[in-house]
Amino acid sequence: MASYFRRNYFFLFTFGTAVQAYTVFETTCKTPTTNVNFVSSPDSRGTLDILWSSLFTIFTCTWTIQHLNVPEQREGRDRGWKGDLKWMLKGAYTSLKWMLLTMVAPEFVIGKACADLVQAKKDLRKLLKFAKADHVSWTLAHTYYANMGGFVVRSRVGGNILLGPHVGNATRNEGHTDTTASAEHRPRASDAIDTTELDRLDPGSFPAKETTRYDDVPDQDSLFYLDARILCELRHREIIPKLPSITKEELEDKSKNDSFVKAIAIVQISWATLQIIARAARKLPISQLELAVLAFAACAIVIYGLYWTKPKDIRCTTTVLQYQHQIPLEILHKIKRTNYRGFVRAFFTNQDQVEWRGPVRNDSISRGSASAWSFIAITLGAVLFCGIHIAAWNFTFPTRTEAIFWRCASIYATAFMPIVVVLGTISNSLEFFEDIVFKTVFPLLSILYLMARLFLLVEVFRTLYFLPHRAYLSTWATNIPHVS
Fold this sequence. Notes:
There is one protein chain. The chain has 13 helices and 9 strands. By secondary structure, the chain is mostly helical. The strands form 4 sheets. It has a 3-stranded mixed beta sheet, with no helix packed on it. Strands 1-2 form a two-stranded parallel ribbon. The chain has a two-stranded antiparallel ribbon with strand order 4-5. It starts with a helix and ends in a 22-residue tail after the last helix.
């Protein structure tokens, strides 16, 4: 019995000594005064801590969600390191431009993402019929890739192969793979129409719906970017015998959906949201900038969901059809794209723009149901983003006037799009009221909306330097991994 107590006493003494040696330092000052094993995060934070963590979260919300279309192909131009730098800066400029647009008006990116999704699903229903007949795997991601300008037609390739390797019905012929087009689509001497002879052609020789001004025919020493609608038309007319055969794995390999980068963005967004919740639970002041971060995070989650299956950062195209000489004119008329001039202008005009060979614009949008759904998404996105700013109703502001302006600006910005919907509905019912709305009321409301959004944007940074003293107290959320 005595030996039992001696052994347990020794164990308790040893364990107690170890616990005493492993001390935790709760920081209420900059550094501990004795040697310790673990130091917790400081119980305070500085202005730059709030600023940098908020800016990084906004950056992750606006940069990683970009799903831009396939860019213009370099095609061996601008050789050397100067050319490499030029094309690198060109791509960075496009991404930076869309990042700034997302910062200023995230609801428009939500609307564009919704329009892309609706249009892709609409095109998918048509393409699936051909995919089933061609025994080709086809998904929503393939349709996205088509609408991004991933499939192209080439001219003057200098060879005899007319179909891209992903399209041809490969058959063995004396040890060689035959990927040429059917006989009626092979280039003939008459197909190589010289552009100097275009003026002598009779416009009535082509169907009215396919005619165009012949001086609009572009130089054919370039790629011609397609979209899903044109791809469907080429397959319907059997200009290509089958849809491109690209496996899901090949498409995922082209896509730059970096799971690690996306995980960092999700962790940062989750941390920012959790920190705001923790501060609200402890009734600690929250800065207006942190509330704006929450609004960006909410919009980023919506955009992530809408673009869930869309490929990301694809840089190279897939050739589905190519000609040794110039493209026959009757084929050229079928591969022109007709889009609105731009996403924003689509809501103000019905004028179409014919695009021949350039890449699919990132702001292009098709007519019909896609634009209608995008308008609904913009409305809901604006209500979501601006509505979160209303939560700063009783926050601390530098002056009483700025507090009143914030309340008015956040309420008006939230209600602007619903007001536009109501006015649009009324103007459609009352014709005499339409001119008043679109020429007077709507421009005035739009100017006030821009001023309100600009005030909110400026005020979130101005109020950062007028926070109450308890806003600098940190919570347990600082111990969670994040970037600041």
